[in-house]
Amino acid sequence: MLFREGKLCRPTSGMAAGYAQANLVVLPKDEAFEFLLFAQRNPKPCPILEVSEAGVRELSIIAPGADIARDIPKYRVWEHGKLTGEYTDIVKFWRDDFVSFLIGCSFSFESALLEASVPVRHIEEDRNVPMYETNIPCTPAGRFHGNMVVSMRPIPYAQVVKAVTVTASMPRVHGAPIHIGDPAVIGIRDINRPDFGDSVTINPGEVPVFWPCGVTPQAAIMASKPGFVITHAPGHMLITDVRNVDLKD
Amino acid sequence: MLFREGKLCRPTSGMAAGYAQANLVVLPKDEAFEFLLFAQRNPKPCPILEVSEAGVRELSIIAPGADIARDIPKYRVWEHGKLTGEYTDIVKFWRDDFVSFLIGCSFSFESALLEASVPVRHIEEDRNVPMYETNIPCTPAGRFHGNMVVSMRPIPYAQVVKAVTVTASMPRVHGAPIHIGDPAVIGIRDINRPDFGDSVTINPGEVPVFWPCGVTPQAAIMASKPGFVITHAPGHMLITDVRNVDLKD
Predict the structure, then answer these.
(1) Could you give the CA distance from residue A12 to residue A10 in angstroms, rounded to a whole number?
(2) Any CB–CB contact under 8 A between B141 and chain A?
């Protein structure tokens, strides 16, 4: 409500502890079927939490009553693949053929890792999580295609199995890792130079562990240069009414 | 290939042991987005194994090279909610806007139950599985709505937990039970009079266990009386190239 009323505009990291946050993509219905198909074929990088019906701004599943055009702190508008503006609400852009996709976010499983005493380095170092393009192809759907983007967290050898089992129990927020160990195997040339986010320290006795990342669907959409797309601004997520523990299903 | 060439036409139960079979629904693209949304919102009764792109007859994921218009032994054509004919191929009906949905089938988890020494009564008694309408609402999507249809298998008390864990590990073919015990709780008045299929014997010391059923999506589609739908004929499924053991993921 604070975001809706314009009384607050900030990144949502650390807000509403225990509740899941979600990525936003808004597409015209003409492209929505193919994007839903892309997500259905690639559920690990694109775990869908809710999809609206065409033209409907009010959410009903993960945040009943939320207005998707006003309740995210900051939005980005993209035209033909280029960022054309940032806005605190998108009411003036709304169209009857817009479909909203809310996509699970790794904030949820990071909170589960911390509860299980598994360290999350980028939180310790107060940086953004390092993300990398890989050579792992997504299954294409219509105009949408591309390789998987992954996030990386260094995990002590003795805790790798625990990190796998904790995250595997949460498939609706990316689930288990896609790769453990040698970055070159999945096409990453320099672990210290991520394609998105910040690099983090990998200590002796730690293994880089890679999870499917929610940047994948945005990259697949932008590669197709759609006429008009709205997304959240990085870090400015939808705060849902769903508790992270309820995503273990 | 035998089905495609018209050399064979029979129910597929018991064929190609170890390989998953799938239900078929073909809808025009105009309705496909809402149906994909219905399935996405109700993954337990509607576990999607593959969705084609509009107009594409060749499958690529669960049965690469299969022709969805010829490789099922028997099809049904429905117009405005009424069955208008059965056919061994649907090439003459095919349109450029048709989207095919292949939906997981409980044959896969029954084979896992049998391997785990859990009895499957309707197989023992050589009957069709009993299925019931319930009072459990599906989450609606556009024109598609309705209550969940469930299948029932009587399980000895001592094996109920095993039946849950074995099927829970296979979410892509309906997964864990939706209800265990008293049928009245989910709106079933007479366990001996199923709404679809045959009744089976429940022995002393056995509990009725209910799983989400693939009849649910067909019922939701038919309730909306769409202009034109093609499905498989009951028992005449698509035989896929996916092994049941590979659905545990």
Answers:
(1) 6
(2) yes
- CB atoms B41 and A29 under 8 Å: no
Mutate: best of B27, B29, B34, B37, partner A, most A CBs <10 A? B37
Residue-range domain boundaries for chain A: 20-105+223-247, 109-216
Radius of gyration from C-alpha coordinates of chain B: 18
CATH number for A109-216 (one of 3.20.20.140, 3.30.2040.10, 3.10.20.30, 3.90.1720.10): it is 3.30.2040.10
Query: According to the CATH classification, is domain A20-105+223-247 in 3.10.25.10?
Result: no
Rg of chain A, C-alpha, whole Å: 18
Gap between the Cα atoms of B234 and B131, Å rounded: 13
Q: Is the CB of A36 less than 8 angstroms away from the CB of B36?
A: yes
| ipTM of model over 0.85 | no
pLDDT band at A160 (very low <50, low <70, confident <90, very high): very high
3-state helix, strand, coil in chain B (%, to 5): 25, 30, 45
A109-216 and A20-105+223-247 share a CATH fold: no
Q: Which residue of B has its CA nearest to A43?
A: B40
Is any Cβ of chain A less than 8 angstroms from the Cβ of B81?
no
Tens-digit pLDDT profile for residues B215-229: 899 889 888 888 899
